[in-house]
# Entry
Amino acid sequence: MKATIVIKNISNLITMEGPNRPRVKEEMRNIGLIQNGIVAINEDEIIYVGNGKLPSHIEVGEETIFIDGSGKTVTPGLVDSHTHLVHGGSRENELAMKLNGMGYLDILKMGGGIHSTVKATKEASFEELYDKAKKSLDIMLSYGVTTVEAKSGYGIDDFDTELKQLEVAKKLNEDHPIDIISTFLGAHAIPEKYKENSNEFVDKLIKEMIPEVSNRHLAKFCDVFCEEGVFSVEQSRKILNAGKKYDLIPKIHADEIKPLGGAELAAEAGCITADHLVAASDEGMKKMAESRVIANLLPATSFNLQTGNFAKARKMIETGIPVSLSTDYNPGSCPTENMQLVMSFASLIMKMTPEEVITAATMNGACALGLEKKIGSIEKGKQADIVIFDSPNLNYIIYHFGINHVEKVIKKGIIVRE
Ligand code: NIG
Ligand code: FE
# Structure
């Protein structure tokens, strides 16, 4: 078999070899490390992974591209499985409010926060949203991200804006090297119009919006912001169950600020992930572990909210919950596209080991999007999504924080960044 690309002499090759399912407990530390590693790619597929030299059945020719991996660390492409990629405007005006002690939910209650992004997204044209999101994707790719989840949620009751966001994500998925997986998050805030009768909006979501999004094949997942003053557990349950009826896999923004019972609901509803979980109860965590719901943790959001509260990652891992990590990139609670910073925060603040961190950002991230058979590890037969870090080892990437360590990114067997 012919190799189109060979990466050789790799000082530290992190393969993540192992079962194609969420990794738990000590499995999160088995990163399949190969020293003096070598990887061969044919077109978009990984055809050989090993150590030392290529075996004779892998042919190389004049057109084979050789990359020297000495002094480098090579990992599977990073997966950012929770973002609000497509939106209009920005919210730096909230910084002063936060510094004056105003909370995220206070700003939302006043009609700011998500509501101000709803306004900006409604006013933005398809092209404006496309150009802004493309810029963010370029940044994400430069930081080693090769697969991204993108949520709607800045149209809420304005269904045309919800659809516009999803159509932008669809077009970007076709045009940009990064793969984009869409999530319908119509249940992101209670619209002003429905302030006094939020159940009516839940009805609209269930009867009109979810069926239409599903019929148009615009999303793989259905998400809800289950939080005090936003959607209750009961309303969230209804929304997620309606999504399931229309083949939308449930996901949930759970227990981000108040311990409402979102983690418990995630287990009950069979969510693929529960995200945030900063205030998740012990009982909720136990139930998530039993149901193998992935905890998608977003430490850069906690950092930016300035509350000092972070998800209890150590406890979750010890309880047997598979953990993934994402940016939560959005204009309010987390204006950064930088997955490497998230990885550093996960270790420096939430005390995850570098091995757990890379597992969470690759294999478990792939599982968070239901893509574990195709991506998440560097193994024969998998799609060639690979990052070459100009770092001698994994610890260095995480410890030397706040900068970009990426040297090259390979997506579907093509060098898309160098
Ligand atoms: O995951 N918490 C709800 N949604 C987003 C924030 C969206 C926004 O503030 O615009 C989050 O943090
Ligand atoms: Fe979010």
In short: The first strand starts at residue 5 and ends at 14. Residues 84, 113-114, 117, 225, 253, 256, 301, 328, 330-333 surround N-(iminomethyl)-L-glutamic acid (ligand 1) (CB under 6 Å).
